[in-house]
Amino acid sequence: MPSDNLTDVTPCGGCSRREFLAHSSLAAVATLLAACGSDTATAPLPNGVTVRVADYPALATVGGISQVSSTGTPVAVVRSSASTFRAFSLRCPHAGTTVQITGGSFRCPNHGATFNSSGAWTGGERTSSLTELKVTANAAGDILTITS
Ligand code: FES
To answer: Alpha-carbon distance 27 to 46, whole Å?
Structure first.
């Protein structure tokens, strides 16, 4: 006969039903967080990413965007003029999913937030703008250093 007592059944090799349910709930939450794409939610912002512009063909054209770092927090560089560049964290400000580059703008695959090439939110899930990072160019303008 089934029991209504949560402590008298041992479904997982010695733990009580109550312990089993508690552990199962934690595992379910962890699985849901992973499914939500929060892979970059806690990664620190980059500090000292070096970018050789010539290594990213998209950056040869004004308006071009390229992802330049995929470790830690992914970073995108935008060529904003013939001699200037901007950099943004690709960590979605809504829930931390890695934002994708879509032509000359950005789109979050998780809930659909969109951002223009200046990192400003433009539609989809309402959130703030992408985090802009500091870009320093060398004298020749062909090597960039990105810091948070
Ligand atoms: S995580 Fe990007 S829109 Fe929700």
So the answer is: 30
In sequence order, which residues have a C-beta less than 8 Å from that of residue 96 and are 6 or more positions away?
A: 37, 38, 39, 40, 41, 42
Q: Which amino acid is at 72?
A: G
- Three-state secondary-structure class, residue 27: helix
Q: How much is the pLDDT for 146?
A: 94
Enumerate the β-bridge partners of residue 78: 65, 86
The pTM for the full model equals 0.73
Is the C-beta atom of 94 inside 6 A of ligand 1?
A: yes
Atom of ligand 1 nearest to the CA of 124: 3
Q: Is the pLDDT of residue 36 over 70?
A: no
Cβ-based neighbour number of residue 141 at 10 Å = 12
Q: Is residue 130 lining ligand 1, measured as CB closer than 6 Å? A: no
Residues with Cβ within 8 Å of 37's Cβ and at least 6 positions away in sequence, in order, are: 95, 96, 97, 98, 109, 110
- Decide: helix, strand or coil at residue 50: strand
Which of helix, strand or coil describes residue 52? strand
Q: Average pLDDT, whole number, for the chain?
A: 81
Query: Which long-range contacts (C-beta less than 8 Å, at least 24 apart) are formed by 103-108?
Result: 104/63, 104/65, 105/65, 106/65, 106/76, 106/130
